[in-house]
């Protein structure tokens, strides 16, 4: 009696979709990571003779040299800033928003931002650099 050998099925795995999945994961983690928070804003913080160490920012607001407002790395207007921060304050009543303002801005250019953060009910922490 002759024993027949079974033919192995010819399996072909499409590996081209693995590359697509890898690039999608890389893009997702780049967008979800913290490098977007302050990396794209040209900001020179004002100096102060004494500074206190604060807890890490859960929410950060920056105003660059041109008066453009950035909230957690996304460009926003001062008018919509309160509506963005208010839901965060509802989740965390002790939320401290770190506000960074470019050192060359005048009071009337950054005060709408400070007022919007204050209107949201968050605690405001102004950030700066130590003076030499």
Largest sheet: 5 strands, mixed
User: What overall form do the CA principal axes indicate?
Assistant: elongated
Order of helices and strands: HEEEEHEHEE
The termini sit apart by: 95 Å
Beta strand count? 7
Question: Can you give the helix content as a percent range?
Answer: 25-40%
User: How many structural domains?
Assistant: 1
Beta-strand portion reads 15-25%
Count of DSSP H/I helices: 3
Poorly predicted ranges: none
* Major beta sheet, strand line-up: 4-3-2-5-6
Q: Rounded to an integer, what's the Rg over CA atoms?
A: 25 Å
The secondary-structure class comes to: alpha/beta
- Quick check: average pLDDT? 80
Describe this structure in words.
With 132 residues, the protein is of the alpha/beta class. The protein has one domain (36-130). The protein is built from three helices and seven strands. The protein has helices at 16-32, 78-91, 107-120, and strands at 47-48, 59-63, 69-71, 74-76, 96-101, 123-126, 129-130. A five-stranded mixed β-sheet has the order 4-3-2-5-6. β2 (59-63) and β3 (69-71) form a beta hairpin. α2 packs parallel to α3 (107-120). It is elongated and about 95 Å long. The mean pLDDT is 80.
Quick rundown:
34% of the residues lie in helices and 19% in strands.
Features:
single chain, two-stranded parallel ribbon, 34% helix, elongated, 3 helices, alpha/beta, 132 residues, five-stranded mixed β-sheet
Topology:
Elements: H1 16-32, E1 47-48, E2 59-63, E3 69-71, E4 74-76, H2 78-91, E5 96-101, H3 107-120, E6 123-126, E7 129-130
Parallel strand pairs: 1-7, 2-5, 5-6
Antiparallel strand pairs: 2-3, 3-4
Helix pairs in contact: 2-3
């Amino acid at each position: 009696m002759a024993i027949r050998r079974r033919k192995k099925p010819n399996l072909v795995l499409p590996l081209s979709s693995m590359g697509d999945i890898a690039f999608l994961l890389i893009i997702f983690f780049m967008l979800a990571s913290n490098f977007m928070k302050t990396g794209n804003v040209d900001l020179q913080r004002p100096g102060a003779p004494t500074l206190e160490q604060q807890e890490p920012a859960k929410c950060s607001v920056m105003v660059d040299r041109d008066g453009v407002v950035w909230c957690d790395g996304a460009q926003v207007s001062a008018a919509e800033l309160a509506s963005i921060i208010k839901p965060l304050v509802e989740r965390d009543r002790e939320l401290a928003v770190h506000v960074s303002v470019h050192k060359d801005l005048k009071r009337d250019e950054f005060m709408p931002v400070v007022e919007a953060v204050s209107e949201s009910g968050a605690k405001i922490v102004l950030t700066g650099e130590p003076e030499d």
